[in-house]
Structure formats: C-alpha cells, structure tokens
Amino acid sequence: ADPIKIGFLVKQAEEPWFQDEWKYAEQAAREKGFTLVKIGVPNGEKLMAAIDNLGAQKAQGFIVCAPDVKLGSAIERAAKRHQLKVFSVDDQLQDGKGQVIASIPYMGISAYEIGKQVGASLLAEIKARGWKMQEVGAMRIAYDQLPTARERTMGAVDALKAGGFPVTNLIDANLVKSDTESAYNAANIVLTKQSGFKHWIIFGMNDEAVLGAVRAAEARKFTQESMLAIGIGGSKSALNEFAKPKQTGFFGSVLISPKRHGYETSMMMYEWISSNRQPPALTLTSGTLMTRSNQHDVRKQFGL
Amino acid sequence: MSAYLEFEQVSKFFPGVTALNQVSFSAQAGRVHGLLGENGAGKSTLLKILGGQYKPDHGCLRIAGQAQAFHSAGDAIAAGVAVIHQELQYVPELTVTENILLGRLPRRFGFVDKTAARKLVSERLQALGVELDPDQLLVNLSIAQRQMVEICKALMQDAQIIAFDEPTSSLSHRETEILFRIIRDLREQGRTIIYISHRLEELYALCDACTIFRDGKKVATHAQMAAVAQDTLISDMVGRELSDIYDYQTRQVGATRLQVTNLVAKSAARSDQNPQSFFVRSGEILGFFGLVGAGRTELMRLLYGIDSAAAGASIYLDGKELAPMIVSKAITSGIVLCPEDRKEQGILAQASVAENINIANRRGNLIAGLFLRHAEEAQLADQFIQKLNIKTPSREQTIANLSGGNQQKVILARWLAQENLKVVILDEPTRGIDVGAKNEIYRIIYEVAKTGCCVIVISSELPEILGISDRIMVMRDGQISGELRREEANEAAVLKLALPD
Amino acid sequence: MSPQNQASTVQTSTKISKLISKPNPFISLLAKQGMPLAYLILFAVLSLTVENFFSSTNLIGLMLSVSQIGMVACTMMMCLASRDFDLSVGSTIAFAGVLGALVLERSDSVALAISAAVLAGALIGAGNGVLIAYLRVNALIATLATMLMVRGLAFIVSNGQAVGISNESFMSFGDARVAGLPMPVIVLAICFLIFGVLLNHTVFGRNTLAIGGNPEAAELAGVKVRALRVWIFLIQGVVTAIAGLILASRITSGQPNAAQGFELDVISACVLGGVSLQGGKAKISGVLIGVLIMGTVENVMNLKDVDTFYQYLMRGLILLAAVMFDQFRTRGRHG
Amino acid sequence: MSPQNQASTVQTSTKISKLISKPNPFISLLAKQGMPLAYLILFAVLSLTVENFFSSTNLIGLMLSVSQIGMVACTMMMCLASRDFDLSVGSTIAFAGVLGALVLERSDSVALAISAAVLAGALIGAGNGVLIAYLRVNALIATLATMLMVRGLAFIVSNGQAVGISNESFMSFGDARVAGLPMPVIVLAICFLIFGVLLNHTVFGRNTLAIGGNPEAAELAGVKVRALRVWIFLIQGVVTAIAGLILASRITSGQPNAAQGFELDVISACVLGGVSLQGGKAKISGVLIGVLIMGTVENVMNLKDVDTFYQYLMRGLILLAAVMFDQFRTRGRHG
Ligand SMILES: Nc1ncnc2c1ncn2[C@@H]1O[C@H](COP(=O)(O)OP(=O)(O)OP(=O)(O)O)[C@@H](O)[C@H]1O
Ligand SMILES: Nc1ncnc2c1ncn2[C@@H]1O[C@H](COP(=O)(O)OP(=O)(O)OP(=O)(O)O)[C@@H](O)[C@H]1O
Ligand SMILES: O[C@@H]1[C@@H](O)[C@@H](O)CO[C@H]1O
Ligand SMILES: [Mg+2]
Ligand SMILES: [Mg+2]
Description:
The complex is a heterotetramer, with one copy of chain A (304 residues), one copy of chain B (501 residues) and two copies of chain C (335 residues). Chain A has helices at 16-32, 44-56, 72-81, 111-129, 147-162, 180-193, 207-219, 236-243, 258-275, 295-301, and strands at residues 5-10, 35-40, 61-65, 85-89, 106-108, 136-142, 170-174, 199-204, 227-232, 250-255, 282-284, 288-291.
C-alpha cells in the first residue's frame, strides 16, 4: 500500500488558531509516521484546487475547516471523485439545503456555541461587578460579511438576551475590514453616538477586533473598571494584554483547544485509513474563559 | 577655421536597420551646418547621438578636439550641447516657465524660486522676440507655440553647440522668421549650429555648409552652401534627378461634388467665428492656405465630424445630404481626413507598419463580415511601402521605430490606400517629408484626383499650395478670406488674403 | 571619400549588419517566444523534480484551478489592451454565483438561473462601460465603485449567507468530463480560442488594440471608440458571470464573499503575460502563460507543502523572476 | 512678412487668448476649487443633518480614522504623479509595526524600534524603486511581488501572531494630545504640509511631475529620472513605516495581518483627489479632499447606522458621485 498521506485544509492559514491546529497535527504525524499536507483554503475555489491537489498527491484522506459550511456538498463530491476520506473540524459542513451532513465525521465547537459562552461569561461578570444592566451598553463588533463572525457574535447576543440584558442597549459597531484599526474606528463612532452609558461590555469575532474597541474606549477615558471586553481565541494578542503591567479593559478571552482539534482529528483520520476504524460522527469540545488571573492554569489544562 | 564639432566613423545599428554607417564630418564654430537627406537617412539618429540619447555602436564624436563619451542627455548638456528634437519633448501639465527651465530651475534656500524663474524666462523670451505667456500650461498651447517653447528651452542652456531637427515643420511664417533671426544671432556669437530640414529654401537661406546623407551614409559635405546647385543637392539626396518636384498635371475637372454650407462649431472656442461655405469639384485639388491658427484644421474637423457643428450646416456629397456628420459616417461615405499631428492623432505607436496602414481600410473587406484578410492586408501594406518608399526593415516593424518622415508616409498611406474615395482631406500632408517622397505623394494626389475624387490639401508651405492646387482657399481669423484660381494665384496674392489687414 | 573607400565601407557595414541583423536562431526564438519557452523549461524541470507534478490528475487539477482566472483573463486582456481597467470582476463572480443559486433554488430551472446571472453580468459590464466611455469616469474609480456595489448586492440578495445548490444537473456541470477533461477546463480552452481569434483576426480585436494604443487616432480612423469600450466591458461582464456560475457549480453554492482579490490575480496574470497597462499591447499566448505561471506556482507549493508564510515569499520571488526574465530578454533584443 | 503685419498677428492672438481665459468668476472658482468647495458644502449639510457629526469628538475621531491613509496618500501622490504605482504599502505598514514591536520587546528602546522600522521601510521602498527604475520591472508586478514578500516577512518574523507592546512611552504616542489634537492627527497635518511644499515648491516635486508627464522629456533635459524614482519610492517606504509605527502604537501591538487592502484605499483617495494614474498631475489639496471624502463617508454611514451590506452600495454610489461631480465640472471648463 502507499504510504499514508493526510491533508489538513484550513480556511485562514495565517491565523494563529490554525497555525496551532497544524502544529498539533504535525505532532500526530511525527508520532504515527504519516505525511501531513497543510494547505490554506481561503475560498471555495482554492478549496477545490486543494482537494484536487491532494488527489494528485495520492493522499488517502483529509481534515477540513472550510471557508463556508455550505461548501459541504462540493467537498463531499470532490472527495468521492478522488476517493478521499473526509473529516471536518471546527465548523460542521452542510449540504445545499442547509442540512448538516451527518455522514462526514466532525469534531469541534460551533462558532455559535463559542459566542454563547462569551455572552454567558459577560453576564456572569456584570453580576459579579454589580452593574445595573440598564446602565450598560453592549457593543457587538460586527463583521457580518464573514459567516463565522456573524455566528459567533450572534451567539453572544442570544445569550445576553436570554439572560435578560435589555435589547435596546445592544449596539452594533460595523467593520469595513476585519482588523484592529477598523474596530477602533467603528467603536469610536459608537462611543460618540451613545454617550449615555456608564459601562460598556464589548464582544466580537476574535481578540483582535475586541482589542480595537478597547483601545477606542480607553482613548475616550473609559477605565478598566467601567468596561468589560471578552474576546475569542485566546491568541497571542490576548496574552499580550494580560502581560501588560496593569489590568486593561480586556477582561478575558474564550479559549478553545487547537490541540484536540489538530491532534485528535489527525489521529482519528490515521486510524480510519490504516485500520479502517471509523471515527465517531460527532465530537463536541468546549471553550473556557481565560482571564488575566487564570491564564496559566487554563493553558496548561488545554495542553498549551 | 577649425572644426569645433567632429564626428568620426560613427555607426549605429538597430535590429534589421543600419541607421548610421561610419559617418564622418565636422562642423565649424560660427557657422550653420545643414544636414539633409531622405527620410530615414539617419539625421535624427546622429542628433540623438550628439545629444547623449544613444551611444554610437562604433566611432566617436569630438568637441573642440576632445573625444566625448556621453552616457546620458545630462552629459551632453554638461558638455555644452543643446538639441531640439524632431518629436517635441515637453511636459504637458507644466507651465511654459517650468518647461523651459526643466532640469535647471533656480533655487533659493532649497526651494524653487518661482519669481526668479518667471523673471528669467520672460526676460529671455522678450529678448528673443517670442510672444508666450510664461504661466500658461503647455497643453493649452498650439503646436507651433509648443515648438517655440522647445526652442527656447534649448537656447536657455546657452550651449556652444545647438542642433535643430526640423524645427520649422510646425512653425508658421512669423515664427519661422523669428527662429531664423535667432539662429543668425547665434551664429554671430560664434556658436556651432546644426540644422536639419527638408525645405531646401530654408537651407539655402540659413546654412553656410551642408552634409548630405543617404541610407545611413554620408554622401557629401559641401563647405559652401551657396556654391551648390539645388539639382545637385536633390540628386545627392534621392539618388535621381528631379527637375520639378510639383510636376503639376492638368486634369479634367467635373461638376461640384462636395458642397459645404454654413459650417461652424457648436461650441465655438472663439467669438469671431462665422459659418463657412465652400465647394469642391470632382477631380479638383483644393488648397487651403492660412497662417497658424487661421482655422483650417478646425473647419476640416467639423466637416469630418470629429467636432460637432452647430445646427444649420449642410454638407452635400454627390447631391446627398450628410450633416450632421460623425467620423464613422464620413468614412463610409467616402470622406477621409489625414490629421496634421501624426504623433497625437495619427500613429498607433505600438502597432506595426502594416496595422497602421490597414486600420481604416478593412471595413467591407472581411471574410464573413468578421475575419481579417491577412494576405490582402499584407499585400496592401507592401504595395504602399514600395510606392512611398517607406524605409522600414519589414511591414511588421513597430511604427514607433521609424523615422519621423517615414511615419508620416505610413499615415498618408492609410488614407490614400482607401478604396472608393470621394473626398480626401490632407492636413499638412508633407510635414517632415523629403523632396523625393513629396514628389511621389503629389503624384498619388493627382492620381486620386484623376479618378474624380475631391482632394482638399491644407498646407502652410506656400510653394506647395501654389504648386499643386487647382484652386486655393485662403483663411484668416477663422474664416475664408478669399479664393484664387490657379491661374491668378501667386505668392503675393495669397499672402495678401492670409495676413491681417 | 574615394569610391574605393566607399566600397570597403560598404563591405564592413554589411559584415556588421549581418552580425547584428541575423542573430542565431535560438536567440531569436527566445526573443519571440521567450515566455512560452521559459514556461516549457520550467514545466520540464518541475515534472522531473516534483513528485506527482507530471500526472494527469495533477495537471487536470492545475487547469481546473485556473479555470476561472483564465476565463476572465481573456476578457481582461481586451479590457487592458484598450487602456481600461476592471476591478469589479471578483464581485461579479460572487454576485453571478449567488444570483444563479438563488434563482435555481426558487425555480429549479437551470436555464433560468444561467440567463439571470448572465444578464446581470452583461448589465454590470455595460454599466461600467457607459460610466467610463460616455460619462468619462476614471476606470479605476468607476470599477472600484461597481466592485463595492456589486459585492453589496451579493450580500444583500443572499442576506450575507452562502446559497446552497441542490440541483443535480447544475452541480454535475462542474464535475462532468468530456474526453477526460472537466467541463470548466473545456470552457476555458474555448475562451482562449475565441478571444485569441477575436484579438488577432477580427476588426473588433484590432480596433481594441488601436483605441488602447492611441484613442484619438483610432477615433479619426473611424473606430467607434465609445461604443467599442462599452462592448468590451459588456463582454467582460458576461464571461465573468459565466465564470461565476461555473464556480458556483463547482462549489455547489453561491458564496457572496467568493473571489475577493480575484481582480488582482487576473490583472497580474495578464501583465505577467505581457499585456501593457498603458494599452495597445496584448498577446493571447502571453496571457495563457501568465495564467499558467500563476496556477503552477500555487500547485507546486501545495505539492511541496511549503509553509504558508514562506508561500508569500515564494510567490513574490517567482513573480519577480518571471518579469525579470521577460525584461532581460526583451532588453537583450534591443541591445 | 512686414513688421506691421507681425504686430497685428500678435494682437489677434492675444485677443483670442483673452477671450478664452476669462469666464465668469464663480465658474472659475468652481472649476479651480471645485472639489474643496463641494466637500465644504457636503460637510455643512452633514453637520446640519447628521446628529453627532459636527462634534469635536467625532471630527477628531474622523481625522484619526484617516491618519494612516492620509499619511501614505501624501507619498502615493508623488508616486502616482511620477507615473508609478505602489501596491506594497499595506504590507509595509504591517511589517513596520511588527518589526517595531519586536525590537521594542527585545530592547525596550523606542529609538531603536523606530530606527529599525524606518530603515526597513526605506529598504523596501528603495528595493521597489531599483526594481522599477533600474531593472525596469513593471510597477504593478514589482510592487505586487514586494507586497507578497513583505507580508510574508511580517508573518515570518512574528510567527503569525500579534506582537504585544508594553512600553509606556511608545504606547502613549498614539494617545497623546497636543492642543486637543491627537498626535497621529498632528503627524498627518505635518505630512500634508511637507508634501504640499515638496510638490509645489521644490525641484524634487516639479521634477516628479515632469517625469510623470513625460519621462523622455525629463530625461533629455538632464533630470536624473531613475535616481529620482528610487527616491520617491524610498520616501514612500519611510513614511509608510512611520504610519505603521503609529498604528502599532495606537493599537498597542504589531499585527502581521494589519492593513490588508490598504493600498487600494490610498490609491483611490489619490485618484478621487484628481491625481492622474497616467502621471504628471497632482494636487495636495485634492488628495486631502480625497482622503476626507473616504473618511467622512465611512464615518457618516456608521453614525447613521447604515446596514453593513448597504454600506457597500452607498460607498460605491458616493465614490461615483464624487468623480462624476468632478468630471462634470472639468468638462464644463473644457467646453
Ligand atoms: N529606435 C529605433 N529602432 C529601430 N529602428 C530605428 C530606431 N530609431 C531609428 N531607427 C531607424 O533608423 C533609420 C534612421 O532614422 P532617423 O530617424 O535617423 O532618420 P531621419 O534621417 O531623421 O529621417 P526623417 O527625415 O524621416 O526624420 C530609420 O530607418 C529608422 O527606421
Ligand atoms: N495664437 C493662438 N491663440 C489662441 N488660440 C489659437 C491660436 N492659434 C490657434 N488657436 C486655436 O486653434 C484654432 C484654429 O487652429 P487650427 O489648427 O484650426 O488652424 P490652422 O489654420 O489649421 O493652423 P495650424 O497651421 O496651426 O494647424 C483656433 O480656433 C484657436 O482656438
Ligand atoms: O470558525 C471558527 C474558526 O475560525 C476557529 O477560530 C475555530 O472555531 C471555528 O468555529
Ligand atoms: Mg528625423
Ligand atoms: Mg492646422
């Protein structure tokens, strides 16, 4: 038989999260002695090219975090064409009708679930600080052009609403681009318009976006005590904030485990190919809120 | 008298072309040295070497006995050489002052001293007797005025050697006179002057000595211009005898074919414009004469539909009304116009000679109304390359690589090659063209006219207008000021109508 | 000069000009067909050194990966040749895909879906053309504006979410093979054929080059410059819409944020292929090579599993190498 | 020609030029200062109709939001004026930020961090310049290549992760205010001042316009065209690096994927401000207006809470409106 070769396709290869997933997948490859092919697939076109490429390289299967979940049918068809096994990670694939494709094994936490966790953490901290919800503005750093970003932030919104947060206090800061500077500018305008709130809570699709808003609020003299921002990803950006001499408005970040997603999926794919052991159809992982104080424990717990 | 500028065994090669072939000659200080030769003979190439734009492949040039190796135009300028190139080289969006002082703007505390610059330029312009607004942008000037800016730019360098490449091809009489006066002054000051022109009268009027080129080689140097007979010059240049370059042929002139009435621009740029009317008969050559800005080009542009005419105009061709005109309609009706500015309006610089000839000729001659007939197009191109003696290594040569005169011939070929011509308008057709080729072009004009076509020729060269026209319209200040039959036309009569009273 | 001297001068010069005007056949081949030749050599080297590169699955995959870029590069070539510029193609791909998918979802009629998307492409293209040719808006700004607006429309009609496709016959178009070649690749080949012929053998193509080379001269030569420009954009819109539909069929969904940055890839492929941004110069073989270079680089980097971050470096270096090779050879020719 | 006749010819032509150059004062003001005037009117209207728009916090926020774009637009203006093009500015911003942050992290020396980033910017710029001016690589491809490579470098040196900044004095630069204005805005103003003077009152600026307007003419007049082009790119690199440092200080980290698509925004602002992509035409006031329009549009849409997807539409429409207004007024002038 051919030596085992497994592809690992991710939607935003430049992001630390995916770099980490790859890193842990490499670890599995080293342990089991298979070849790992890592390809970034920022859009549907590149995704199709990458699957064709894997076919040409005579890989036997691949793990994928697709740029859009609706690419499910296309992935399924392409994999069948090249007789490749598929395992999806992070985001669960759907078919043309929007139904989850259950036949493709999946491991991850849905973007929406992460968002809900952010919302819940915000609520808990509001309570802990004893803020009156009426005096709190909630800023959603919105980048709805990107499906994941929308799902994550809407998860938070739904959690907040469910926890009794006043709907009228929910305000969108719309991004033009998904970077920190854009978030700064968008947040700045929200702060200008909504000068009535005593406190602010801030959430967005990732740590970088949330940080932009924190900087803007700081420039408007909101202190660490009067704002509460929670990011997603637990990236280096978040750690940098925690490393600052003083606590900033960036309270925490919901950390999810790139290790399980990278290492375990690769291992399961390897078993599937080598000994035809079908992986479980659904493996759900969960996130944990990482703050300045618990950062070391949480990271250790995640094996980072 | 010692030679101030010497060329020794200078050669320059381009792919498929030997532009200069071991050319040697020298020019003296305090004299005007004319260069003449057929289109593509290598004159401009020599000046580009002198100006540091090209490096010679062989040979060298010496100034005051000193061998020079220029690596850039800057080197040549530093060595005291100023060149006025055949293709105007100005910056359209900068002012007259900035163009004239390009590369040498005066500074003060590191900043451009605009007042000083303006003063310098306006004083100099005044001293030279040139009427130009120093603050005007070059885009807003006429070609002639731009040419004058070019000349002033070169003169501003106070160079010891000044070379002119066909400076008068776009100048009017008045400006030509000014230029001649300037050149004579420069000669008095002991400068070395090189002067290229295809107009023999000019060369006789101005030059002390001359060198003749043919096919990249020097044919002869005459130390005393006045002692050389015109016939000798012509035969040295074109390699054959040419007694009368106009060679006027009488023709059968028929009834009126083109009738233009009340033609005036819709958005007139000047208030003194009135509707103009004229007619051309079948087989007739109608000359249009006027000073620069007299409005000849403008009138023809209206007729051809480039600019839109005001309501009330009518254009009848063979009894059929054509107004309002647009270019594509003009062409399909058999009216064509060969523009005066070959660089801006004529050549497709990146395209081949063949493409440049065929671009306007392929309508109605397509396979299935869609595909080009490559073989026929090639044949047509070759035919005109031969007929007009266009100097090019092949029809596939990029037109930008041709000499100025040869480019002009290609553009003429584009329009003369049309089938089914009814009206041909030629705006300054022989600008920059050598005498041999002029003669060829006149013959083609007569041939075309003989088929019953109306030919309109605009020219600022009075002898040419007098030499080939059956009838002459004279324009002044935007209007037709008079009309002369061939028999009654002479220099004085035409000028009387052309000059303001 | 004495006649003798003249004679010997002539001899020398013929010798010299022989030396110069008859270069050796290899150099002249290189000068004329430099890029294709270079690509062939590159291709040969890669075939020998990169495992799995020279295999039919991989080569088909490679062609498939450039099928959208290639199609649009054909029309972009015309657009650039006429001294214009089009940034809106990426958005149009996305919009056409989304619109096609939506119509398909509602009507389940492939014909209707295709017509709707193609019509939309034509309108977008014609809109660009009218803005630029008749209203004389700068092409960069005009197409940047349409790029934004069309992307906005794609988001609006789809509500920002991918539109799934479940129509089997539509989906299978992206998969189907004729004589071993996938349909998108066949469409690509047809595009190159059509636009090659259009550029070199029709009045349309020649006039396009003419208006790019010198719009004023073209106008005087009777070319209907403005109408022609509108047509060029319109065709670009139509071809782009078709590319968008093919993409949608390949990825079985219409994605509103598909093909971001696509315009730059397409323009780069053209420029790499020797199309001048100043207009007036274009060669279909060049564009083909440009497209292939872009695709091959990516393909090989994925085959060799080059690190993401180093891929940026490599792509930059290879782009540079390609143009510098081209520059070197054309300069070599001019001496 | 007799002297008398000569004199009257001169008279006629002066008469003509007088007729041409004296339209009524309002039209001529509009023609000359059309864009600034239009912006003023727009500004007044927005101040009256959009709540919160005309407030010092908002206006400062607006200026802050265009401070990076504005700085780089100043040098991009020079670059475009000389008929060049630079796509690498976005990557350079990111790289300079990352590099500065890294050096700061290691050495904790602000001076060292700034020097390193500025040096890197200068090298990148000079590299572009040499590629384009001396090796004659097409500017689009050359700067596209550097854009990719520099972005790659930014990822490589930072390992793809944001580099945190904890140096107080560096961080406070982005926050600090002088006379109520944040430092970045002051730097922006200084840039406009410097480049305005540079363009209009120095040989450097005039020669830049000359080589853009007609490179051959400039070369023939002895302007050192190639050296000048390298300088222009070098300065662009330096200013961009400074912009990158300021951004890093504002967001207290160096982010390798910052400023993507930045280049297009900057170029658009310039073109909107009347800088010609064909070279030879530039006006600092135009660029300022271009930058302000871009910033204002975004600011107002967020103030008015325009839906994200509709924002795309609006931005497109407003871009079009701006250039069409400009087109209309210049066409009016030329008749
Ligand atoms: N850059 C170039 N590439 C190729 N051939 C060239 C180039 N420049 C000039 N030539 C050729 O060199 C020859 C000499 O050209 P040159 O311009 O010196 O002629 P000329 O005597 O000035 O003619 P004209 O009277 O028409 O201006 C011509 O055959 C021309 O086609
Ligand atoms: N000296 C001038 N001052 C102002 N405008 C001028 C001048 N010369 C020409 N023009 C403009 O050019 C137009 C007429 O020029 P046109 O080119 O038609 O004249 P022409 O007789 O063909 O002269 P030329 O020999 O320059 O081609 C005028 O309507 C005027 O607008
Ligand atoms: O889509 C996200 C992905 O970007 C990554 O951050 C992990 O979680 C997924 O849900
Ligand atoms: Mg010449
Ligand atoms: Mg004229």
